[in-house]
Amino acid sequence: MLVPDLALVVACVTLVYCLFLFQGYQKLFRDSDAGWHIRAGEAILSTGALPRTDPYSFTRAGQPWLAWEWMADVAVGAIDRTAGFPE
Predict the structure, then answer these.
(1) Mean pLDDT in runs of 10 for the chain (87 residues)?
(2) Residue 53 CB partners (closer than 8 Å, separation 6+)
(3) According to the model, what pLDDT value does residue 30 have?
(4) What span, in angstroms and rounded, lies between the C-alpha atoms of 17 and 66?
(5) In whole angstroms, what is the distance from residue 74 CA to residue 45 CA?
(6) 8, 72, 74, 83 - which has most CB atoms within 10 Å?
(7) What is the predicted pLDDT for the residue at 83?
(8) Can you tell me the distance from the alpha carbon of 39 to that of 61, in angstroms, rounded to the nearest whole number?
């Protein structure tokens, strides 16, 4: 007998609430970092390596930097490559 995992059920209910009951689908890309994450992911996919310096900031350009959210960046970069806006 298959029993759903409680954490999975809670995550799915939370996703439905955020996207549909609170109009999250309209606000998904209002975050100013969305484009930055897409570009960071595309850079990681292109080079095959995590960036070691900050290529995006004006005030910290060239300074040591660690992409903490690199896996999510790669995911959104790959999605943008396959189904994103044409350039």
Answers:
(1) 80 82 65 80 92 82 84 90 76
(2) 61, 62, 63, 64, 65
(3) 66
(4) 32
(5) 7
(6) 74
(7) 84
(8) 15
Which tokens in the block code for residue 68? 């903490």
Backbone angles phi, psi at 79, to 5 degrees: -65, -40
Tokens for 69? 């959210």
Q: So what's the pLDDT on residue 27?
A: 63
- Provide the phi-psi class of 71: left if phi over 0, else alpha when psi is between -120 and 50, else beta: alpha
How far is it, in rounded angstroms, from Cα 79 to Cα 71? 12
Helices and strands: H and E segment counts in the chain: 4, 0
Residue 53 DSSP one-character state = B
